[in-house]
Amino acid sequence: MRPLNIIAFAALLAGWNLSAQEPLRLGVAGVTHDHLAGVVQMLGSKEIEVVGVYESDPRYLHDNALSKHLPANLFYGDLDRMLDETEPEAVVAYGSIKDHLAVVKACAPRGIHVMVEKPLAASLQDARKMAALAHRHGIHLLTNYETTWYPSNHHLKTLVDEGRIGPLTRIEVYDGHQGPIEIGCSKRFTDWLCDPVQNGGGAVIDFGCYGANLATWLLAGRRPETVFAVLQHNKPETYPKVDDDATLVLRYPGTTVQIMGSWCWPYNRKDMVVYGSRGYLYQQNRTQLSGLTGKERILPFQAPALPEKTGDSFRYLKAVVRGEVRVLPTDLSALDNNLIVMEILEAAIRSDRQGKAVRIR
Q1: CATH class of the domain defined by 2-146
Q2: CB 176 within 8 A of CB 262
Q3: With a threshold of 0.90, does the pTM exceed it?
Q4: pLDDT above 70 coverage of the chain, percent
Q5: What is the mean pLDDT of residues 307-336?
Q6: Does the domain formed by 149-307+329-359 have CATH 3.40.50.720?
Q7: C-alpha angle with apex 337: 96 to 314, nearest 5 degrees?
Q8: DSSP string for 103-170
């Protein structure tokens, strides 16, 4: 009997491995976010199979980046119908930030996991509703940031966690570009990106979220004591409804975090400087780091590549859904981290309106 049991176990293991190798059945909710290009790049890969696409606006239902690559019968104007007929394992949201709540309302009761583009929600109230649905129905609710997949950020955190620069005293995060209209984002994207209801705000939401996410990660899930923010309208003729430049100052015991997210930078940037009691680290771009640890100066160098299963958003989503990667509360994509991000962003908007620091409750 023992050989038969071994054979049976081997067959079971082979079947599990085959299942793990199959592409993730992926649904797409919304096509107006320009980051949809990331899905297009993954078409034909072994990682994902797009089984259905939803878009509420008939103008874009069959006129989008995916419609040139997928059969017309995969496109739906009704989200519930798309989910029921195509049965995706997970859904990625590429509509307005305000639409994230509706996507989770549809997916969570069906047991379908969700990954949204940053930030988690258009408001803290929406974020809490989404979190309650995810917990009630036992789904993963992840948030995708470009900077999550930067090897330089992960290596920086490794050096910080090793104590190479001592306890953190200051974090400065810089994110943004010349402006979404200035850099040529599509009108279908900027129509909601520049709307205070559909996006939740302007640069404070679009780029302030990066710094809040990274700081929460680097500081092991701690909440700031207070948030002070200055939101500017430097280009009111271009962005009449929302801020285009945001500076946030977060106060933690022993650490100050300054977040500068802007649509007014003269160039594209996503970089960060982290200071400790014995040195500093400069994350220059996606791959390069430099700095000073003690008396040792670190010349610019390439950070090591990330592991395959956590190297990009789609491989990560697949690994999480298939149970191959565990999501920790402090992780960059984690729900807990991103609820704190939403607390920070809401406090920043209130701080600017009130002209004073806002205490995080």
Answers
A1: alpha beta
A2: yes
A3: yes
A4: 94
A5: 97
A6: no
A7: 60
A8: HHHHHGGGT-EEEEESSS-SSHHHHHHHHHHHHHHT--EEEE-GGGG-HHHHHHHHHHHTTTT-SEEE
